[in-house]
Amino acid sequence: MTTPLPSHTDRVRSLLAQLNDDRDAMLKLGTGVFGTAGAPMFPLDLMAFGAVKRNISTSSGFHMMIESWNMGCARSLLRIHIDTSLRFSAAWLVDKPHEFATQVLDPKGKRIDQMKDKDGERLSDARLVEVRAPEYPWLPAVYKNLSGYIHFSRGHIHDSVASIGTADNTISFEVSETDLKFPELSWVEILECFREATAMLAKFLHGYAITKQLSPSELEAAKGS
What we know:
Elements: H1 10-34, H2 43-67, H3 71-89, H4 97-105, H5 125-132, H6 139-147, H7 154-159, E1 161-165, E2 170-173, H8 184-212, H9 216-224
Antiparallel strand pairs: 1-2
Helix pairs in contact: 1-2, 1-8, 2-3, 2-4, 2-8, 3-5, 3-8
């Protein structure tokens, strides 16, 4: 018989509900970016399609991992989620965003982390984190900690430890798909970070939607301002 999982706290459940609201808002924002049927299509539009798709797919999986108390997988998905926002934002660091997007789409093109920004700096993950850190102060520490969850590392080993007996030098392990030992704060933090990463992508999508509505002269003026 499967033991039923406990309920998350009211605060965590409230954040899960907000996660669903974020998903609906992301889909609505995406519709605004892409326009109506027959609207002109640009290379960066295709990147936007991919970013929105990955965002809502990751959000769905993340929601399920929180509900099932699976912190390990939730952390891996948060790392992926942040990656989507960061790499889409790289288009704002190059001189010609549509040419950048074309390279990303080309099977023979360079990976984003192999390209360079307008200052000649390689668009590595570390570079993107550095550039976005002033606006998102939480990003460097969170990104660094989560990177260990993409590849097998000490974080996964720590998660398997149930308790350590300091008096008798014993250690207990728990091998389970659930992580019930984490306090409410841990679940709140990961949910809030996830929502922050969604907001980051939404900001750049919204900016792109506005840019698409500008005339060539207005666009040039905006670049010069």
